Amino acid sequence: MADTLGTINARRALDKRAFLEFHYPRSSSDSDNTIVRIPFYENPKITETQTANYAEYNPINRVGSMYAYMGAKSRKIKVKSTFTLPHLAMHEMGIVRFLRVFTGQSDEAKKALFDGPNAKANNPEAQTGGSTLAIEVRDIYLKYLSEFDKKNHYTSVPKEVWIAAGLASDDGDLTSFERGLKQAQKEQDIKRFEVIDTLLFFVALLRTSVANNVENPLLGPPLIRLTFGTLYRSVPCICKSYNLGWEEMAGYDLETLTPRRLTIDLTLEEVRIGDFEKFDRLDIVKRDNIAGWESAIKAPYTTDPKEI
Q1: Which among 86, 140, 197, 237 is placed 20 to 30 Å from 54, CA to CA?
Q2: Distance (Å, whole) CA 271 – CA 156
Q3: Is the residue at 301 inside a domain?
Q4: Cβ contact 32:124 at 8 Å
Q5: Is residue 120 pLDDT above 70, yes or no?
């Protein structure tokens, strides 16, 4: 059943077609660009609103008001989505898959960030392996269990688990079957911690959506680009607020107390600045200029920028 669901997820490729991209600002002296992508692994709920500003006139003896258009406020887009640990485990995880640091502004450099078999090589600064937040929290739990068991003369954790966690040594008396179990447990733990740490990385990113760079306060919060199928194509936004929670009934990962199902709620507002000239959805800068109804009534019949 898991293989079938994994195949369905892979063929659907939702995470490749629907995502949030965090574009972090850089100083004029910094040539590196940092982009982080948070895919949607489950269907998000997206709603948008926009209001127009009108000056209202009520001439004497006229039955009805007259209006002068004064522009419109930015689109407000609300995004709600969920992340479920067992569901994430059906996909390739690892922070290195989502964090990208690159130099240059070419289209080729950007397109290569998240696609192709060498995608991981595009981010040499991302570190994998070693101690992670999930492992640190797990080790605290296992050490507590060890102290509890010794005090109460109770054994609840198999020796193989202690060895895999580095809290006990292999005395060489394990049979080949036991060694196989040990290796299987270790591989399972690596996958589980990779999933949990990726989820925690997503949470950390969401928290930065309203934060600046403390070391250089002039660098404000990231620009967030929303992509979802045909309705939202790399729409540039700022985040005004976020809500993070979890579903209690879904339970927790026992060793790390990580909720098995997180819920996120973002309040975004569209930002169209570009170079303050004519909208051109194919140009890296002009695609973020304001687009009016003239763009909607001619090919390709959209006011959204093209994803680059």
Answers
A1: 237
A2: 55
A3: no
A4: no
A5: no
What's the CA gap between 126 and 208, in Å, rounded?
18
CB 88 within 8 A of CB 199: yes
- The residue range of the domain holding 218 is 2-126+197-271
Residue pLDDT, tens place only, 259-273: 999 999 999 999 999
Nearest to 156 by CA among 167, 148, 164: 148
How many domains does the chain fold into? 1
Listing DSSP states for 108-165 in one string gives: HHHHTSSSSTTGGGG-TT---SS--HHHHHHHHHHHHHHHHHHHHT---S-HHHHHHT
Q: How much is the mean pLDDT over the chain?
A: 81
Angle at 18 between CA 89 and CA 33, to 5 degrees: 95
128-183 pLDDT per residue, tens: 444 578 888 888 887 887 777 777 665 555 655 555 555 555 555 555 555 555 66
By CB atoms closer than 10 A (0-12, 13-18, 19+), residue 110 is middle
CB atoms within 10 A of CB 146: 16
- Within a domain: 41: yes
CB contact at 8 A, 223 and 238: yes
Quick check: is 165 in a domain?
no
Is 122 domain-assigned? yes
Neighbouring residues of 18: CB distance < 8 A, sequence distance ≥ 6: 39, 40, 44, 227, 228, 229
d(CA 49, CA 259) in angstroms, rounded, equals 32
| Contact residues for 179 (Cβ-Cβ < 8 A; gap 6+) | none
pLDDT reported for residue 33: 77
